[in-house]
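HUMAN: Spend a minute on the protein record below and explain its fold to me.
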Amino acid sequence: MSDLQDNTKAMVLSPEEPHPLETFNQDATSEYFVICEHAGNRIPESLGTMGLSETDRQRHIAWDIGARAVAIELSKMLDAPLYAQRYSRIVCDCNRRPDVAAFTPVRSEATDVPGNINLTPEASAARAREIFWPFHNAVTEALEDRRQRGIPTKLVTVHSFTPVYLGQKRPWEIGVLFNRDRDLAPSVADWLKDNTDLCIGINEPYAVGDDTDYAIPVHGEQRGLPCVEFEIRNDLIADAGTAPHWAAILRDALVGSSRTP
């Protein structure tokens, strides 16, 4: 089979391939609930290489480098559930709605994604059906279960970003992203600015929006949960050995800000 997507193929994942959801501390009852939507760069066997080199499949265009390791350490430190997503964002971006073009990007930064060019609606829908919805339905079920059990929940998502984008250097080391939340995220940002020497981006290098994001608007804002998205510059966390250090910074910001009068 060609390395490019066969739009007539009905199934994306074979029965032997793993479920999109990877969980850690699943039954923990901490007030924090952690999500990592771009944790993995796995590509289903049916899609081959999607026309990309091995080097490109290891780049940020395919996943959030270092985010999974930080999220796992944060889950341990907070004794919080972590729901991580295994498949590459070039297959389908699990932090975008399935009805937007960026869900199956034909170009990521300056790199074309041949496996997404001329993708049929049926092929895109199959990726949503087999990867996006199983992951997000599991998150929905977990959050609803916590609501029914009366467990207070603060939603935290963990991402990473590139130090240079389209030739422009990005000075921030941690970005704190939010939209409607005025409870958790602004307090976390203030704590980081007051208690660290890090360069903190407030809604930098991205901002959360209904058209550009999914987890925070749907799982957080629509449920009325305090919520925050962290972005860490990926050159700082590319080595998995740095994950405990950066997870501790996020933990201290989350816990410390909640104690601020």
DSSP finds six helices and eleven strands in the chain. Residues 176 and 230 are 5 Å apart (CA to CA). Confidence is low (pLDDT under 50) at residues 1-8.
